[in-house]
Amino acid sequence: MDAALITCTDQADEVPGMTRHHTTVLNSRRFRGGWLACGALSLAALACSPAESPDGVGSGLPPPPTTAAPVTGGVVVVQTHEVPHLGAVLTGPSGRTVYLFDKDRDSQPTCVGGCASPWPPLTTTGPPAAGPGVNPALLGTTRRPDGRTQIVYNGHPLYYYEGDDLPGEANGQTVISNNGTWYVVSPAGDRIAPGGGDY
């Protein structure tokens, strides 16, 4: 028990407001509940110490929530981009080239199902917008069989190509697949020939 009392007195020296008088009283009484005294002193030490707070704020309260990134509204802007040997071509909002499929007629997409895996349609949830160099009168939309809304330009449903990663690439130009040929689209709304120029 003397060892327990010594531990208590050591702790008492570390407790703010605990004087040597309290330590002397504990030693003189030598009561059997020495361990209870230790527990009480430990609780007193915790009560006197400041609350630990996250991130070192010092208030003991959680830090304020961070502000979420602003929402843009989801408007899809059709743009143009210069591609070597082809000139200005239509792109999606990220600058990736978009294509027309020569099997599509009257704004109706025929590249559906498995065809749309390498040729994902340029879709929107609202009216598309025209960027610089794009004629807003040629912009429109059509409903795909899966219910999504696809952007149309001059009557051509627009598609991306999985082989393009960066703005300025046009790896899908004149690719033949799904019984048709794919072309980049000029700002005038026509397909662009392999060496450049509308046709």
How would you describe what is shown here?
It contains 3 helices and 10 strands; from the N terminus they run αααββββββββββ. The protein has 199 residues and is α+β, with helices and mostly antiparallel strands. α1 runs antiparallel to α2 and α1 runs parallel beside α3. The radius of gyration is 37 Å and the shape is globular.
Provide a compact summary of the structure.
The chain contains 3 helices and 10 strands, in the order αααββββββββββ.
Largest sheet: 4 strands, antiparallel
Percent of residues in helices: 10-25%
Q: Could you name the ranges where pLDDT drops below 50 across 5 or more consecutive residues?
A: 1-73
Helix and strand pattern: HHHEEEEEEEEEE
Share of residues in strands: 15-25%
Shape: globular
Q: How many individual β-strands? A: 10
Q: What is the CA-CA span between the terminal residues? A: 101 Å
What Rg, in angstroms, do the CA atoms define? 37 Å
Mean pLDDT comes to 76
Based on the structure, what is the oligomeric state of the protein chains? Answer: single chain
Structural class: alpha+beta
Strand and helix layout:
Blueprint: H1 2-14, H2 20-29, H3 34-48, E1 77-83, E2 87-91, E3 99-101, E4 123-124, E5 129-130, E6 139-143, E7 149-153, E8 156-157, E9 176-177, E10 180-184
Helix pairs in contact: 1-2, 1-3
Which short descriptors sum up this protein?
globular; 19% strand; 3 helices; 4-stranded antiparallel β-sheet; 199 residues
